[in-house]
Amino acid sequence: MMNNLIEQTAKLEQEETLPETPDFIRNFYKNCAFFDLKTAFGRLQNDHVEAITYSELHKKAIDFAGYLQNFTSKGERAAILTETGLEFIIAFYGCIIAGIIPVPCSIPNPKKADGLRNIIDDCDARIIIGLSGTLKKFTPVLNSSLIAIASDNIPSGYAFTPPAIKETDVAFLQYTSGTTSDPKGVMVTYKNLQANLKMIKDRFEFTPQLVMVSWLPFYHDMGLVGMILSPLHAGGTGYYLSPMEFILKPLEWLKAITTLKGNCTGVPNFALEHCVSRIADEQGTGLDLTGLKTLFCGSEPIRHQTLKTFNEKFRQFGLSPNALYPCYGMAELALFATAGKVGQHYKQNSFDSAALFNKQVKKAAPGAAGAIDLIGCGFAAQNSQVIIVDPQTQTETPQGIGEIWITGPHVSAGYWGKPQITQNTFKARLNESPGTDYLRTGDLGFIFDEQLYISGRIKDVIIMNGRNIYPTDIEICVNNSHQDLNEGRCAAFSVWRDTGEVLIIVKEIHRSHYKMMDEFIANAGPDGETTGKLVVDYCKAIQKSVADTVGLVIDDLIVVAQNRLPVTTSGKIRRAACKDLYLNNELNGHSLTSLLKNILRHDRA
């Protein structure tokens, strides 16, 4: 039987006495009323499931919303320190129905909280929400004017007054993951969100029988929209492990799918590789993946070899090759842009890499010299359009490679407080069709046999391990890693190796130090103690700084003399040009990575 609170809400809706309310919130009320005692979400920990029903979620979200209204008003921003737990979900929905704009944030080391501070400052958040223990750690490092609300200690009984909320109001801010120096918060409106959730529900064929099992972080767009908001929108159930639990023990994710009879999950490409490398065949005893209908893969470039090896390893446990489901999306659309048909094997083709480099699409025989395997990411969601555009002429190039542009009701309102970037990114128009606004994704791709293929990126963001990382964040920490390195420019970018996408750093150093390395190499051996120590010091300092700051390993570290990196007329680094020089061996620099290996070999000898 429905509790009184849900009965009252349903009655209000029936009588249409609620104030102006977006469809997303109305859907929340309706599903909580209809599914009542069904499990909405569950947190997995140590073989135990802490669950919350739809009716309990409704009551707790209402309590949270009423409590919030004592501290702030509609439209204010609330930063939520994101931990994998039911408290986050309650807090998020509580903010939403109160008209408070939630801002999911990752939890940094309290001693390195600049990224969190920058996000809070950028959106002018008035409230910070988190578990009481977590909030205590950040009290000394955050603005004292912030109102701290412990999500695990919310009193009940506060009256809640539903505010009038428009479809065009901002539902939440999704900050692009990995940003620290220049955060950009995507303004996802209620209209955008509802439109994208419907697209996801229709394309992924979500029903109330959906059982989602995930470990993705809740502050990530795929973790939030794909793994929390989508199951509730469809009347399904979601279960969650923490990201760290997956990283340490990836088998626990597959065990959870088996135990809970999960029929849908989703991960970035790196997670599949992690499972293949960390789970031995004998450890899979007892796994049953026959019920897994959809395992969608996105958030970073998808490799055919990864999908192939994952399927080969886990098909013995019932995994269907048709379950693997590549898709494409981004936070600027709430989440979802393209995917194929559920239950059909993904599309893969081999293309001539030299032709792709020249922005041409040319098929190649599988395994042929110069052939590269690419994965089709499906076709556009209903009521949306994906086109390929020459970014220079802003004309459509349907047969060639160009920038991917998208239009539809799921395209968000822009970046918070950044009107010029919003205009350039979200209001692009074709020369031949000036009346339609498009989102410029910054990704390069092409359409082949009605499938979207991603071939590269023209924007500077680096995507590794499912994270968006801005080069400036890496470059700043490189420049600050050693007293000799705070001068000169730096360029960070990624390139593809056989093992996947890797990080490359090119750093300008003082000419005197560069000359020392020239002489060091000319002597044909590691016999310069001072220079050898310098190489070791630079490598260790930079590797540690990058690892500590962004959690990445550098594949190759190149040093060049000062003023050798290509720049624009205004002095900005031309990273794409720098990458081309690197790939063509035209940087005229020294690889400290190679030098370090030679030094270590010599020392051991």
From TrEMBL:
GO terms for biological process: Actinobacterium-type cell wall biogenesis; fatty acid biosynthetic process. The keyword Ligase applies. GO terms for molecular function: adenylyltransferase activity; ligase activity. Keywords: Ligase. It comes from the Bacteria. GO terms for cellular component: plasma membrane. The keyword Coiled coil does not apply. SUPFAM superfamilies: Acetyl-CoA synthetase-like. Belongs to the ATP-dependent AMP-binding enzyme family. This is Acyl-CoA synthetase (AMP-forming)/AMP-acid ligase II. The lineage of its organism: Bacteria, Pseudomonadati, Bacteroidota, Sphingobacteriia, Sphingobacteriales.
